[in-house]
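QA checklist item 7 of 12: single-chain prediction sanity check.
[x] sequence parsed
[x] length recorded as 387
[x] structure emitted
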Amino acid sequence: MQAPDSRTIFAGLDGRTDTQLPDWYADGTVSADADVVSFAEAIRDLPRAVDTTVAYRNPHTDEWVDTERFNAVVEPSRLREQAQGASDADPLFHVPSDSYTILNPVDVYGPLEDVLETETVDGRALGEVMFGELRRYRAGGEVHMDVMFDGLEVRLPGRGEPITMGVTTGYDFFGGHAVYVEGFAQDGTCSNTMRQLTERERIKHVGDVVDFEGWWERLLASLELVADDLFAFIRDASRITIDFTDVPFGVEAFYTLCGFPEYLAERAASDAEANADNPFEIDMWTLHSGATYALTHFFKGKEGTALDEYVGIANDVLFNPEATIERVEETYEQQLRAREDGVHSDLDGERGLARIERVRQSVHSDVEQFESREAALRERFEAAVEQ
């Protein structure tokens, strides 16, 4: 993933909590010289925004004319430094219409702090077990963060470290990202991140500000449901395998047929083969884990639309195996038709297509419960948020 302008590691809600990072996270994610601050400190260190008057220049009179239809969204400390000649940092974030509502970090995450003091996991306030990472882009005008809760987890048989649950959340002041939150998890065994575990909930920078405290209460209350469902998905996906000796492509080609670029497919295949009990017969959970490994550690793009697309592909491997096989089959058929000269069929290709179809049919008999369970997971999450 494209490196952010800066990265902040946090642990604990505020200065009153003596929270230590879990060993698996500290060893796998945090450099030895990194400063770890509280969540409250990290939020209050973020740039904030205010609005100010916008004017346009009339080229016929060389005069500047104020307009009330738009406002400039600017960073106030940079305005002051610019006026004093102390900095050349651009204070301007965005020039939206007058319907744009500024939502500053404390507006959104201050209410979360109140909720984290009262909501609990294993008898401890979430504020005492929270930790994660905050990433700044574009001089702090765009922010994304992963917030996890030690003890809110999925434990798989035979694995030493848990999959820890949490949320990804963020915003920007450029009109590109509304305030959002979605389910998130990180695998402590390999530091792979699992994103988009729930539908993304958004609060747009338009109109009246919502009750953020109630919003956060409902979101966090739903995470235990997500953890239970995630365990069930992983358990069942571990039972569904692809025999790569019985299909006309290898593991790396599986990922490219899914839609991954070659550089990610190569990394994903390497990880999946290394972690599979049998590198020629790999289950869907291991294939999903290979995909998340590639995205977590080798994706070259930026957080946003491109990453979201590949995360969706990876999640289908776990949450919707049949749709994944259908995608592979369709892409293989398209490539097969493109190779044909219009006169003679590629008999090997036709046989390969038939073999993929047999795999899809066998998967279909195993995954009828997946679609209904995924829908139930997302419906429960949405219902919890809307209460």
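[x] summary fact logged: The chain has three domains: 6-45+104-216, 50-94, 241-366.
[ ] second reviewer sign-off
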